[in-house]
## 1
Amino acid sequence: MLWYGAALALLAGRAIANSVTDGVTDPPAIVPGAYIVEYEVDQDTDALIDKLGGEASLRRDLRFKLFKGASIQVNNLEHAESVAAKVAEMPKVKRVFPVRKYAVPHHTVHSTGSAVEAIVSKRAAGGNDTFSTHLMTQVNKFRDNGITGKGIKIAVIDTGIDYLHPAMGGCFGPGCLVSYGADLVGDNFDGSNTPRPDGDPMDCQGHGTHVAGTIAAQDNNPYGIIGAAQGVELGAYRVFGCEGDTPNDVLIAAYNMAYEAGSDIITASIGGPSGWAEDPWAAVVTRIVENGVPCVVSAGNDGSAGIFYASTAANGRKVTAIASIDNWMTPTLLANASFSVDNKPGSDFGFTAGDPSAWGEVTKPLWIVSHDTTDPAHGCDPYPEDTPDLSGYIVLIRRGTCTFVQKATNAAAKGAKHIVFYNNQPGTVIVSATGVEGVTAVAMVTADQGEAWVRELEAGRQVVVTMTDPSRAGKFLIYAENTVSGGFLSDFTSWGPTYEVEVKPQIATPGGLILSTYPRALGSYGVLSGTSMACPLAAGVYALIMNVRGTKDPKTIENLLSATSKPNLFRFSGQSAPFLAPVPQQGAGLIQAWDAAHSTTLLSVSSLSFNDTEHFAPVQNFTVHNTGKTEVTYSLGHHGAATAYTFLDPSFTTPVPFPGILTQEYASLTFATGDRFTLPPGHRKIVSVRVQPPALDAKLLPVYSGYVTINGTDGSNLSLPYLGVVGNMRSAKVLDPARTYVRSSKTGAELPVPPNTTFVLPPAGFSNDTSYRNRTEMPRLNVQLTMGSAQIRAYVVPVGNTADGIARVSNPFGLNTIGLAEGFPAMWNPRGPSAFIWDGKLEHGEFAPAGKYRLVVKALRIFGNPENKEDYDEAQSVEFNIRYLSGGSAKLRRWKERCRDEVTAAEGVQKRSAIRIPTEDR
Ligand SMILES: *[C@@H]1O[C@H](CO)[C@@H](O)[C@H](O)[C@H]1NC(C)=O
Ligand SMILES: *[C@@H]1O[C@H](CO)[C@@H](O)[C@H](O)[C@H]1NC(C)=O
Ligand SMILES: *[C@@H]1O[C@H](CO)[C@@H](O)[C@H](O)[C@H]1NC(C)=O
Ligand SMILES: *[C@@H]1O[C@H](CO)[C@@H](O)[C@H](O)[C@H]1NC(C)=O
Ligand SMILES: *[C@@H]1O[C@H](CO)[C@@H](O)[C@H](O)[C@H]1NC(C)=O
Ligand SMILES: *[C@@H]1O[C@H](CO)[C@@H](O)[C@H](O)[C@H]1NC(C)=O
Ligand SMILES: *[C@@H]1O[C@H](CO)[C@@H](O)[C@H](O)[C@H]1NC(C)=O
């Protein structure tokens, strides 16, 4: 059975346009001229910098127990690639890779506010923990039994922590809740400028304080927020300034510092699209896990992109990727205001102020364009001709389909200054309508409140609303049951697996609609959504399990959590499906921490991958170990989860966006060793699982998945997630030739240039010189990957008699080429768009002479052999001409002298990785 078609997939795409977390995260940008150098063996970083004779300066010494290296900044960007090449050739250098930047993950801030007039959600009598996310995950049971993670150190790599917040301990340093850590970057760091570490990991963004509160918020708060592991010590490793991104050399340093400070657990709610465990940052995290410290990383918030969109560093091997589930409850922090109906005053309501929010002194009647409270696109069209002047009203608009800005623009066209949106989902969000001319204040109320007002208006009654200045209004918390999505996977949670069919994510925890601490300057408390909010709960659970079981071994704990987690049904658009959500979405399911802490049956793995058809590994083994005191008889079973097609039909090359195309045609499993066995105390047994994948169209790359169930007579119900792919990953096209083309660096148009266009380049070596900018135009190569590619190459191929007499570069494709364009090969690329501006420079450091060329782009397919030309997809640009402004002749002469030696393009591929220009023009 097929469930949901393309039409619904499209609808989901449109619905996303009006969510606060807009669109899919772009591939992480590269920092120009910045490289991470990993040493083969330890060496003196100063000596390395000296050897570069002033060509590069030190960004950061990265010499740690588990990583030896440095990051460098090439001083003259014109020489970036050649300096990187020089470093790569140095003895004792293992590899050189570009520095990439990661953003604070797109998360939704629903509402924030401090407790001026708190209506506190009371904990149940007896003081037991009834915090809803704890009830969902059994975390409450630890606290009720006095287990708080005492003695465990959790490092939080994030935006810092507002440690002066009373619920975060009120101080920083030994003896405090936030007892250790560092600020690696300083307030003014934006991801590109020079970090100024200042030792003070105070948070000015909010993200890190929210994350930290989920782990360890203390009871002294008015909203009943309870940290999962209140007894732990936190380490705050601050890697973001007040705005902007963080580069992976800073992340690598933070991880190693956290490891060396003796952290027992490291958590990071940071990531960017990747899909490759080989990503350098992910590889560092893997190494830390291999050295005994569990690392949990948020799975990513790109669920809308569909399957195969794993995020780094969560996609690292042995790294525990945490998916998000929506809270059973919808906490909402609202500002107090009032309204009257037909002059009967006195009803209170709450709102979440948006941006702008000049709501003080505003008392106006409500006006609404239509009374349909189910209209999915309410207010998306221009208002009718006969609409009155709306400046005397507060316009009420339902959320949905088009952007808030679009809706506000339509209202403003009829004079509206004040707009209140009502939600079409649980809770509220902070709406932005900045830049809409004439609009001075926006806000959101809950769906219930909005619908109640619509009823009054529909009945012909007048509703007059008296708003309040949100910065001064009393705030209160409402806690409604989340009947829409509570307990189900959050729509935004990113889907795995990796391109090499490794199971991602591992486990899920609540991350949708989470109430936690927020910096005092930003309201002290906030309700946020994201896998960022899920990950810290998992970190807290690791601490609790360490307390109970006395082990800190990452593998043991991950295996326990995976085996005891509860898979849930798939849900989309308010409906739950009659089948389990695919393993690539939920991993093992919602963690059950108490069961994990007390399970006496241990499995030797946390998941199984049967790989794809080409690399089919149909038999997988795992061990069942009875560590209990009694004999247990186990029965094995199988529960299929939805199979998810990667492609809609064979002509499509991009994976189907959320919610995808799902079917209930499952794999079948057989247990060669029998499906029932008895283990005396202390005994183990190897279980051999043989899979028969579903007979489905291999061209569509269906990803099947499900759970091996292991029920014991001791009452245990364990399940082990598995997945596999029908078809060959190698058969999937990775490059879209129609969207891979040369355009102009200058005009904004996303269109290929006409054939025979002439680009006038800056003199060789002066492409970054602003004095030439007005007079030059460079080819910009847009590359569109439909699936991840481990390697992209762009060859420069002369046309006609261009570059005659210049040596050709050998390549597997038999191309008549003078080399790769600088910036290639680009390694470990996520799917999606990327852009490279070409100033005529070649990968080996010389410049292409003036003349006519085309660029031939080759992208390696998944599991492709880099030496095998059949394993690449190709796209060709039109022929275009380049010439240089005068000034660069010296370099061109040098080229002519040196080009006699043939250069092998494939050389250095193992050691080097490419520089990539951020998508915006330089
Ligand atoms: C190159 O140009 C960028 C953008 O204009 C500028 O930020 C950077 O400092 C320049 N670098 C060099 C080495 O000239
Ligand atoms: C609180 O939790 C403890 C331990 O689970 C339990 O024994 C006790 O009955 C609970 N108290 C209430 C009031 O629910
Ligand atoms: C699938 O097989 C390929 C080729 O042997 C291997 O590189 C990859 O790691 C395998 N994936 C898993 C999850 O075992
Ligand atoms: C799985 O176990 C069986 C015996 O139980 C053994 O013959 C086989 O080699 C094992 N396979 C793997 C991949 O370890
Ligand atoms: C194991 O227990 C679960 C939950 O009680 C049940 O759904 C499943 O059918 C059981 N499996 C076997 C093989 O008994
Ligand atoms: C291509 O452009 C060059 C330089 O502008 C011009 O001399 C030539 O005639 C053009 N060729 C064609 C086929 O349009
Ligand atoms: C380049 O453009 C800027 C503004 O666009 C202008 O002020 C400047 O004079 C121009 N320079 C040249 C050399 O044309």
Note: DSSP finds 15 helices and 48 strands in the chain.
## 2
Amino acid sequence: MGAHAPRLARKTTPILLLALSLAVVAFGATDSAALFNFKEALQNNSALDNWNSSVNPCDWNRPNWVGILCLNGTIWGLKLEGMGLTGIIDIDSLVPLSHFRTLSLMNNQFVGPFPHINKLGKLKALYLSNNRFSGQIPDDAFQGMRSLKRVFLANNEFSGNIPLSLSTLPRLMELRLEGNQFQGRIPDFRQKNLKTVNLASNFLVGPIPEALSKMNPDSFSGNKDLCGPPLYSCNSPLRALNKKGNTLKIIIGVILLLIILAAIAVALAMFHRKRHRPELERNPSLSMNSNKIAPSYVADQQQCQVAAESSGQSRRSDKLSFVRDDIEKFDLNELLRASAEVLGSGTFGSSYKAAVGSGQALVVKRYRHMNNVGREEFHEHMRRLGRLKHPNLLRLTAYYYRREEKLLVYEFVENGSLASHIHGNRSLEGKGLIGKPG
Ligand SMILES: *[C@@H]1O[C@H](CO)[C@@H](O)[C@H](O)[C@H]1NC(C)=O
Ligand SMILES: *[C@@H]1O[C@H](CO)[C@@H](O)[C@H](O)[C@H]1NC(C)=O
Ligand SMILES: *[C@@H]1O[C@H](CO)[C@@H](O)[C@H](O)[C@H]1NC(C)=O
């Protein structure tokens, strides 16, 4: 055996060398072809224009092609960063590259699902951060990648759970998943070599695995509800407070809102009363004693007189005009002095129920926004209204005309009004046109 070996070696060496060199050439060609296949699947790949098939990608450790990582004349990785690349990541085309260990496609424009990266079983580093990859990553996406040390998927749009297979990678040292939409719980990472993990700005919940308890708390910030070291303990009162704090804020917010709404309601109610009270609604006991009548009412009456005098109509305009004569007469002062009860108020004015003379009940409607109606026109309308007779209609009894304000006086009907007859007793109070039934 010892004697044969050298002879055999001497005989076969040239053939072996030839075969070897052919293999190297073939190998180089395969590498180039593999890379060209990878490039073909990409879009907007003009940044890779210097890839030239007549030149070897690598001169030992020196790359001839842009973005190629070379080691001892082999292709060790691709670093195609910030090149505006998009299109398909053809993992299959990289499988023939037997020394391929690292792939970086960071800061490009890639979209779509996570590529089938575990076809590159010897990969040590995967950098896909700052693209627009999206969707759920299958739980077994990293299955069998026993050499993988670095996984950078930050700032994409990945969703769903963090893939379980990441937590079983035996060599994992650095994991960056921040700025995605990962949700659910963090899988139970147990790797001892894990040095950096960043899971910030996702939608993760639940306890942080013990193996990650020494990480920087910032690596867990901006999630939905993570707990345990390095954050608050999951049953710490601080965390409860923190959670309650949010609830408390909401409750306080709601209470504040209610208080503000109540304040607005009270203010509106007061404003409303202020506008309408001085008119006819008055305390009957006050109305008996003119000395005690509210100043606003006095002002009201004076206004009437001033208006009457200035309009040159003498005291005639101070009088009510009656459109019916089958009714007990009363004068304006009597009406103004009468105890009154607000029936409703609306867009055009307010209605009151008042009792005059021998307790005759009347509905008085006060219109304030009919300033454009001329005196004659108004008289004419009132006369026509006075002639209307219908069982379902309140009959006009009298009216009062002043340019700024008109009063219409109806007889009061106990069991309803036109509105309640027409609308089946649903009050039209708010419309202020027809008095509410008493
Ligand atoms: C590829 O390289 C060869 C040899 O260096 C050169 O002649 C040729 O112009 C190159 N082609 C491109 C497209 O750069
Ligand atoms: C690369 O070649 C050098 C010698 O030139 C050797 O020491 C080293 O182990 C080789 N590396 C690999 C990864 O093959
Ligand atoms: C194409 O790539 C260039 C850089 O090479 C980049 O500026 C551009 O935004 C990219 N276009 C698209 C559509 O991604």
Note: The longest strand covers residues 349-356.
